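Hi there. Long-time user, first ticket. I'm pasting a complex I've been working with (about 470 residues overall). I'd like to know whether the download I got is complete or cut off, because the file seemed smaller than I expected. Thanks.
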Amino acid sequence: MKFKHLISIDDLSKKDIEYILELAEKFLPVAQGKKRTTPLEGRLLANLFFEPSTRTRMSFEVAMKRLGGDVINMTAQEASSVAKGETLADTIKVVSKYADVIVLRHPLEGAARFAAENSDVPVVNAGDGAGQHPTQTLLDLYTIKKESKLENLKIALMGDLKYSRTVHSLIKALTLFNARIYLVSPPTLALPEDFLEEIKSRVRVEEVKLEDVIEEIDVLYVTRIQKERFPDEEEYFKVAGSYKVDAGILERAKSSLIVMHPLPRVDEIDISVDRTPHAKYFQQTFYGVPVRMAILHELLLGDL
Amino acid sequence: MVACNDSTKVDKSDRLAVSKIRCGTVIDHINAGKALLVLRILGIKPGCSERVLIAMNVPSKKMGKKDIVKVEGKYISEKELDRIALISPNATINLIEEYEVSEKRRVELPPVVEGILTCPNRNCITNSREPIKSRFHVKMEGNRVKVTCHYCGKKIYEPDRYIVSR
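Hi, the file is complete. Here it is re-exported in full:
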């Protein structure tokens, strides 16, 4: 498999996804610090983050360094040429001369695809506004594969299904694995109609109450209500805190059920869940490292 | 631009007659009411040098009502004409030489259009100050034209609402 950039999960076939997950599995002991390998020695990654991020930026940095590469960061927008009015196109043209791979987070949707058109080196989309965040989807899939099962999965997606790019990308990816998807959300945060129509023919999907499916699901994927995505703050306050998962409701779940969350959480998962064997969200965040190692390795060196 | 009432008249049988052009391009079977959008797609603006005849809401057996646009002295490229399919997939093109039709064809939906639609997603990179042209992928979905923004993935089912002035 060869791909030059990683912009959207839609650009990947099932075979591509499976290949990345297998590669991530090979890199897991390296990510855990149990094994050492330096295939990316002498290679440089440029983190260009035009929006704040802790987890994603750090995990790319860790992934690159665990493979022997090095990292440069552009996080303080004020300190760069961007504050002087430089376009993204120019920034990318310059940085692609310095680095071997660019990781970009940008507030505008489509920014990563545009950056790729202006770059001499591979571009990885680390989130473009409410658009795509393919490495999050891949690490979600890796977590599901590792901690549950990918094929014939029964998964409940809970929370902000309207604005969450994580949920939209994950649903699209799950259509490739014969999943059964249950949607749990306040009515105002339901999956957009046109999106639902688009996927209905490819996956079994239905809107439910969590109590009705808790006994049969393999994965409960919870999302935060993202205040920054709401065009109207009043609308946000109407739904903020409207759902919560606690250890009580999980008592009825299968012992193998896993609870996932892209983090950061606010109050949608009670800390009582952290102490149950169902909680996998911190492990999920860590799995971002081997998955990003696989992606960087593939983009920079091609097939193993 | 020459207004249509300079060169059209309704005859006794209620048929609308539009004067012939000597050479140029005739776009027929345009969905009623879309003629002005066709001019926008072709980049024909007030003050342009071409002689343009427009007939709107002309009776049509097939369509009930239709619009017609005639552009005198200009052969418009196929690529440009195919953009018309976005708003009027049944439009036909006649190339005219010495008052006779030299070539006749239907418009074909282009797979991609660049720079003629604006993305309705205000947060799309194409609506920023970056040096970028809008690009949309075009498909028929049932009997509707669906266009998808190449950059942000926004889908549009009524592309005529988003045609830019060129």
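A couple of notes from our side: Confidence is low (pLDDT under 50) at residues 1-10 of chain B. The first strand of chain B starts at residue 8 and ends at 10.
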